[in-house]
Amino acid sequence: MKGLGELERTVMEVLWDRDNGATAREVGRALADERDLAHTTVMTVLDRLAKKGFLVREREGRAWRYRPVATKEAYVAELMLGALNMTGDRDAALAYFARSVSGDEADLLRRVLDEVEGT
Amino acid sequence: MTGTALLALVAAGSALGAHRLTHARWTWRTPRTAIVLWQALGLAWGLASIGTLLGFGVAPYGQGVVVGVARFFADPQALSPVRIASVAAGLLFMLLLIAMLLVAIVGVFRARRRHRALLALVAHGDPEMPGTLVLDHPAAAAYCVPGVRSSKVVVSAGTLEILGPYELAAVLDHERAHVRERHDLVLLPFTSLRRIFPQSRMVGRTLDAVELLVEMAADDRARRHRPAKELATALLRFAAARPAPTPAGTLGATGTATADETSPIVVRVRRLLSPAPLPRPLRGAMLAGATLVAVLPLILYAIPA
After folding, report:
1. Domains within chain A, CATH numbers bracketed
2. Is A95's CB within 8 Å of B142's CB?
3. If both were cysteines, with which of B31, B91, B173, B285 could B213 make a disulfide (CB 3.0 to 4.6 Å apart)?
């Protein structure tokens, strides 16, 4: 049994693959081949993801239909913007290996690289 | 009045010292000690500035800052309006510094929580790099999300593209050094100072200097167990592949970057390839000096004059 975090990922993957979102039952059915999950487990995971702000839900009969708030690509882009330090905010939330450089500087770095590798 | 005059002197002296230190290059030969010196200067500057205002305000009591402020609260009427204003300014400045530090801490924790939650959903592990997460994005990025219980080192697919296996290992060692030495906590007071004085070039240069020293400290640790050249070429390859920062209206970290030998990346590379660490006695003397600088204002707070 994998952790709750892994389960959340798996559930998000299912929802990202669908255009129309899914109910807890549909998610459970989609995952039935890989693993046998209790219906309540799926509901708990969906509820947690909605509380964290990754899913929105709307009533559908007696069940909820869940949809992702943003695409997977959008989240990756958000993380990369922070990682590339392009949000314009110099905060200390992350520690970077190297900051972005200007075009001129990149040329210089390539020259130095040739020099260093030549030794 | 002597204590207050000395506090003013310490405030001015630490500002001058910080100014000199932003232009210093010898600090690169011992980044960790230099970081301690920066912290001591920052602390001394804050304490001495606050102390000068408080000390001037409560000078008529002739009992020093600590006792004077206590008496001020017991009987504020005894002082003239100018003195009262000075005490109020001192207290407000102290509250401002503390509040901005707290705001910075809360902001950083929020940003990290969001970042972690997103990583958990979209990043994946790699069996060849235990403890490291991979983001599927073509741009080059390598960074760590520091944390008390769990720190995450993250690299993008673009980074794996451009770096060889040894270079990548060097980068990961560098990032783990940031995590182990809690460099995020080192930077926190300086970034919060930046928020209080966003226009100050002096504060901006201070932040630049401390950030560079933190990188050098991590470089030094990464170099301990592997050839420095791996990290040096990784640094060059990696930085050259990064897109230039162009968000409109923001002065990015490299807004004033210069394309010559003073470029931070080149400085780090040169230093990795020909290290010249300061001798141990000198470093010891620096540490002693830093301690003295940090403690001096506190002693002056207590002087009854």
Report:
1. 4-68 (1.10.10.10), 72-118 (no CATH)
2. no
3. B31
